[in-house]
Amino acid sequence: xxxxxxxxxxxxxxxxxxxxxxxxxxxxxxxxxxxxxxxxxxxxxxxxxxxxxxxxxxxxxxxxxxxxxxxxxxxxxxxxxxxxxxxxxxxxxxxxxxxxxxxxxxxxxxxxxxxxxxxxxxxxxxxxxxxxxxxxxxxxxxxxxxxxxxxxxxxxxxxxxxxxxxxxxxxxxxxxxxxx
Length: 180
What we know:
By secondary structure, the chain is α+β, with helices and mostly antiparallel strands. Helices cover about 15% and strands about 30% of the residues. It has a single domain (about 5-170), classed as Roll (3-methyladenine DNA Glycosylase, Chain A). It contains four helices and eight strands, in the order H-E-E-H-E-E-E-H-H-E-E-E. A hairpin with a 7-residue loop joins strand 4 (about 70-80) and strand 5. The relative contact order is 0.25. The mean pLDDT is about 95.
């Protein structure tokens, strides 16, 4: 299992290093295939210090879950020590608990179970109740595979900071949210 100090590093470095690791909650497991890094940049919640974004400023190795667009939860892990940062987990390749994920998502197509941040939270039953917990308590990250090739692209669904290539995917993986 990945220890808390793993998340003490630079956010962009962690976003890359999380690819290939295994996300675990309960009986559900998936290989992390897509991440996005958020620091003190125009697209980040850390751009402005608020009660919601405070966790990005004062912790590393914490689960940061927020509600977006009025219907999705998004899973992040806080990073760095003394600077704001978090990595959004955008997609995983399901490897265990698939029937439970299908039931939660009401979807049969395995490739459509966790290919987006809201979908993966629904499939893994990740909610606001998980916010602020330590990585390793309810939500774990375990060692997995070493990706052959990682590709950096612009982040998805943002208006500012599009020039920053802080979205990372395992090249050629069929479970990413949007292909390049």
